[in-house]
Write a structure and sequence with these properties.
Blueprint: H1 2-6, H2 18-28, H3 31-40, H4 44-52, H5 65-71, H6 75-83, E1 91-92, E2 95-96, H7 97-103, H8 107-115, H9 128-134, H10 138-146, H11 166-173, H12 176-184, H13 204-214
Antiparallel strand pairs: 1-2
């Protein structure tokens, strides 16, 4: 409990029980933060009290306690939250938990969500594999490919960004390890959306040769 209180604003730190914490949180409209922090530190009594008082595990204004438990590797807490109604398909900022976990390189969270039958492609054209590739998280890339993520899906982050496949992103990053992971996973270097900006003046063969030379 001390870790939880130390992570909350000062007005919580003198409180001694879960009801008092939620009384203060409800007054401050801060319940979501309390539950997220409780999940992060694995404080089940505080989570139980929040559920008992009718607070949502799938808040509209937050990524939610399930994500915080998973990013800390607390799969037992995640199991408890899932059993009590936390959604594997919770959306935050129009993106699914799997996309957020892939973007931030949280391999334990990615593995847990995939094993809970969350769609490996996510719900948008810019897939979890795109996010993991963009941020150079090879372990997550390999996990997603192992669960049959499509390496040739062409996607865009937004209305004004061009569509590209993960391999194009890895090429622009000069991320040799991820390039090879994607190629082994079936990425097509000649497919639609696989391009490198003209300023680079490089091709995939040159990059792979450079990778081999570095090894």
């Amino acid at each position: 409990m001390n870790n939880v209180l130390n992570s909350l604003p000062n007005q919580y730190q003198y409180l001694k029980d879960s009801d008092a914490i939620y009384d203060q949180a409800e007054k401050q409209k801060d319940v979501t933060r309390v539950m997220n922090v409780a999940a992060k530190y694995g404080c089940l009594p505080l989570l139980e009290k929040g559920i008992e008082r009718g607070h949502s595990l799938n808040p509209r204004n937050s990524i939610g306690p399930l994500y915080f438990a998973l990013t800390e590797g607390k799969t037992d807490v995640a199991d408890y939250l899932k059993k009590n109604g936390a959604s594997m398909h919770h959306m935050y900022k129009d993106r699914c938990l799997l996309s957020h976990a892939a973007e931030n390189g949280h391999a334990v969270a990615v593995k847990y969500l995939l094993e809970s039958d969350v769609p490996v492609q996510g719900f948008h054209s810019y897939s979890p594999l795109h996010w993991a590739t963009k941020n150079r998280h090879r372990k997550v890339v390999d996990l997603l490919l192992h669960h049959r993520a499509n390496p040739n899906q062409s996607g865009s982050k937004g209305k004004y960004t061009p569509k590209s496949v993960p391999l194009a992103i890895a090429l622009c990053n000069h991320d040799y390890d991820v390039i090879l992971s994607l190629l082994r996973g079936g990425a097509n270097p000649k497919g639609k959306g696989c391009y490198v900006t003209w300023e680079m003046g490089e091709d995939i063969r040159g990059l792979i040769r450079e990778y081999k030379d570095k090894k």
